[in-house]
Design brief:
With 190 residues, this protein is of the alpha/beta class. The protein contains six helices and six strands. The longest helix has 14 residues.
C-alpha cells in the first residue's frame, strides 16, 4: 500500500550515516568519461530490455549523479526513466523528489555500490532499492574497480548483496580482487 511505503521512505532517513560518507559519495558523481550510452551499466539495462522484449518498463536510475547523464541517454532511447539522487547531488531540473515513492520494473545503479563509505551505508542503500523494486523487478548494478570506498573487492560486496538478492553476474566476473562485475539481482523469495 502506498501510504505504508511513503511512511517507510520518510522513516528511513540517512541520519544514521556519517555525513562525511554522504559527502564523499556525492563528490564521486561524474558527468564526463564513461557516462551515458557508452557506460557498462546502462548498456546492461538496454540488453536486459532487449532480452525480455518488453519496452514498457518503468526504470529508476538510482544514484543518477548530479547531471543524470544515464537517465537522459536512456530516455533518448525511448525508455521511461526516473532519476534519483540524494543530498547535495539533487538538482530539481533532473531528479524526481518523489522517485522513492513508486515501484519500478528495473532499478539500476551505476557507480553507486562502490562509493558507499561503510557497510551500514551500503545496506541502507540496498534497503532503499528493495523498497522501490516491484516484486518481479530486477536490480542491475556494477562494482567498478575504482574508486572503492568500503568494500575492497566485489566478492565482499556480493556477500552482503546475497542477504537480499539472488545475484547473477551478467558482465565480467566477480571472482578476483580486481574484478569489476555487473550484476543482475532479483529479490530473494520470502
Amino acid at each position: 500500500d502506498i501510504e505504508g511505503r511513503l511512511f517507510s521512505v520518510i522513516e528511513e532517513s540517512y541520519t544514521d550515516i556519517d555525513p562525511s560518507e554522504i559527502d564523499k559519495a556525492n563528490r564521486s558523481s561524474r558527468s564526463k568519461g564513461a557516462v551515458g550510452p557508452q557506460a557498462v551499466t546502462p548498456r546492461a539495462v538496454l540488453q536486459y530490455i532487449k532480452d525480455s522484449d518488453n519496452h514498457n518498463l518503468e526504470i529508476l536510475d538510482f544514484g543518477a549523479g548530479k547531471d543524470a547523464k544515464h537517465t537522459y541517454s536512456l530516455r533518448d532511447a525511448g525508455l521511461d526513466v526516473t532519476a534519483h539522487d540524494f543530498y547535495s547531488n539533487i538538482n530539481d531540473d533532473h531528479h524526481d523528489p518523489n522517485a522513492l515513492n513508486r515501484e519500478y520494473d528495473i532499478v539500476f545503479a551505476s557507480n553507486v555500490l562502490n562509493v558507499q563509505g561503510s557497510e551500514n551505508m551500503f545496506r541502507r542503500t540496498i534497503k532503499d532499492i528493495l523498497t522501490v523494486m516491484k516484486d518481479d523487478g530486477v536490480f542491475i548494478a556494477n562494482f567498478p574497480g575504482s574508486p572503492r570506498y568500503y568494500f575492497e573487492n566485489a566478492q565482499a560486496a556480493k556477500r552482503v548483496l546475497e542477504d537480499y538478492f539472488d545475484v547473477v553476474v551478467i558482465y565480467g566476473t566477480d571472482t578476483s580482487a580486481t574484478s569489476s562485475p555487473v550484476w543482475a539481482m532479483t529479490k530473494l523469495s520470502s
